[in-house]
Amino acid sequence: MAMSKRQKRLGEDEESDGSNNSQNDNSDSEEDEMLDTEVNVDFEARTPDDSDYHGIKRLLQQLFLKARVNLSDLTNLILERNFVASVIKQCDDDVDDESMEDDDDEDGVFGVMSVINVTETKQRECVRQIMTLLRDQCRASASGLAAKFDEYFTEESYQLGLVISERFVNIPPRIALPLYDALMRDVEAAKAAGKKYDFTHVLLICKQYKPSEEHQGAVFANAEEELFEEEAELQFEYNVTGDADTAV
Questions:
Q1: Computed from CA positions of residues 205, 206, 212, 214, in that sequence, does the dihedral angle turn out positive or negative?
Q2: Torsions phi, psi of 142, nearest 5?
Q3: Cα–Cα distance between 4 and 172 in angstroms, integer?
Q4: What separation in angstroms does the CA of 97 have from each of 88, 107, 128?
Q5: CATH class (in words) of the domain with range 43-91+106-231
Q6: Closest CA to 127 of 228, 51, 179, 203
Q7: pLDDT tens readout for residues 2-33
Q8: How far apart are CA 179 and CA 181, in angstroms?
């Protein structure tokens, strides 16, 4: 998979300044070469461990923004149930000294995929907070659906799973299919081992970007989630513009 390092290179170059015109000319030439440089980076899915804690939590922050959700507890829950979770990391063969320094800063976690058994963990603080958040948002944004939506959390006949699928924006969407395939295999293995992952329904929080009221339509942060919208039994939208730097 190809990932441009253009933005990173620009950030590095802006910190340096030339002492004469000749040096500036050389610097400009080097910058032009860097702008045109693209490197091939291979990613792989791995089972998360404790060293991925901060990277996973950072990704959860961009999903829940300023919502009142204990992200430390949610991160720990994902790590405790890492048999149904994956993190996207750079392949070891592609890691050089420079990227290793970046990994030290960001734990090398470019994405996370997991499923939380909401029905079985609803007494957990982070799960209670997510349930409250979503039910409140449904009442405020789509009151006609609130009664049905509440049933998924309260009726014993439902086994509800919350899919966590979050990655950095520069990760290509084609990585989603193998991640979902891996998640399905993990869930089947967990069920075969007697764990309670036989869901009747799954819940997914999908982010959409809406540039402005003048522009029609929205763009999904994760492109594949547009397919889920078409198949959803129940869906509603709520606005988090006040919590985000962009219109979401």
A1: negative
A2: -150, 70
A3: 11
A4: 19, 14, 42
A5: alpha beta
A6: 203
A7: 333 333 322 333 344 444 555 555 555 555 55
A8: 5
Determine whether 139 is exposed, middle or buried from the number of CB atoms within 10 Å of its CB (0-12, 13-18, 19+): middle
In angstroms, the CA 54 to CA 151 distance is 34
Task: Give CA separation, 207 vs 22, 64, 111, 168, 221, in Å.
Answer: 48, 10, 15, 13, 6
Q: Rounded to whole angstroms, how far apart are CA atoms 159 and 131?
A: 14
What type of residue is 248? V
Residue ranges of E strands in the chain:
2-4, 38-40, 43-46, 85-90, 111-117, 160-167, 201-204, 208-209, 219-220
**Could you report the per-residue pLDDT of 193-203, keeping only the tens digit for each?**
999 999 999 99
3-state secondary structure of 151: helix
- At 3, list the tokens: 């990932």
Spell out the residues 6+ positions from residue 218 whose beta carbon is closer than 8 angstroms to its own: 208, 209, 210
Q: Taking a C-beta distance cutoff of 8 angstroms, is the pair 81, 75 a contact? A: no
First-to-last C-alpha distance (Å) of the chain: 27
Strands, E assignment, 8-99: 38-40, 43-46, 85-90
* CB 81 within 8 Å of CB 126: no
Q: How far is CA 129 from the centre of its chain?
A: 19
Amino acid in position 221? A
Domain ranges of the chain: 43-91+106-231
Using a cut of 0.85, tell me whether the model's pTM lies above it: no
Q: How far is CA 71 from the centre of its chain?
A: 13
Edge-to-edge strand list for the sheet holding 201-204: 43-46, 85-90, 111-117, 160-167, 201-204
Residue 127 banded pLDDT, cuts 50, 70, 90: very high
Q: Please state, in angstroms and rounded to a whole number, the distance separating the CA atoms of residues 74 and 184.
A: 21
